[in-house]
Amino acid sequence: DGGITQSPKYLFRKEGQNVTLSCEQNLNHDAMYWYRQDPGQGLRLIYYSQIVNDFQKGDIAEGYSVSREKKESFPLTVTSAQKNPTAFYLCASSPRDFGGNTIYFGEGSWLTVV
Amino acid sequence: EDQVTQSPEALRLQEGESSSLNCSYTVSGLRGLFWYRQDPGKGPEFLFTLYSAGEEKEKERLKATLTKKESFLHITAPKPEDSATYLCAVQAGGNAGKSTFGDGTTLTVKP
What we know:
The complex is a heterodimer of chains A (114) and B (111).
Chain A (H helix, E strand, L loop, with lengths): L3 E4 L2 E4 L5 E7 L5 E7 L5 E9 L2 E4 L6 E3 L9 E3 L8 E8 L9 E2 L3 E5 L1
Parallel strand pairs in A: 2-11
Antiparallel strand pairs in A: 1-3, 3-8, 4-5, 4-9, 5-6, 7-8, 9-10, 9-11
Chain B lengths: L2 E5 L2 E5 L4 E8 L3 E9 L6 E6 L5 E4 L2 E5 L3 E6 L8 E9 L6 E3 L3 E6 L1
Parallel strand pairs in B: 2-11
Antiparallel strand pairs in B: 1-3, 3-8, 4-5, 4-9, 6-7, 7-8, 9-10, 9-11
């Protein structure tokens, strides 16, 4: 079945540690996105990529990094510079366009700082 | 800057009691308005895309409508399984597919 797979579902990070969230899609979509969701709030864009080997910062990119070496993969690294990383992280994808295409989401990953 | 405001924040209904959720937006050059349903601890599930004022779409007990300033998600005779958070998002022309999301409306339907 086509879809977006995020792993792990739950991740715990120690202070000063970098962690990487995986996102894979088999929808043949060009564009991929990472969003952060805090309790009771909407989604905020961290990074997005329209094509392989290219990505742009979203609204809250500080403390995060990404890579896009393959069309189907868009991993997110939460670095130690991100001071408040505990949140629900959502990966998404869509056909490449200049607006109007539906964005589809994965099931999300919970990150907790311990 | 694109803005999306959803109201109310929370809505409690009795089973069968119809109501509407509101999504007000300001955007330069709307390319699409999207409704999603999100269950606790899950990713948002796509419901509808609306592209121009006057457009309407339906799916089971849900109907989405669009004007130049707002969108409504009408829920007719809701059931407990309709309980979820409903998210609204907009995309503007020239933003390369970036979406701006509202904070959502959490709907609870009591049996």
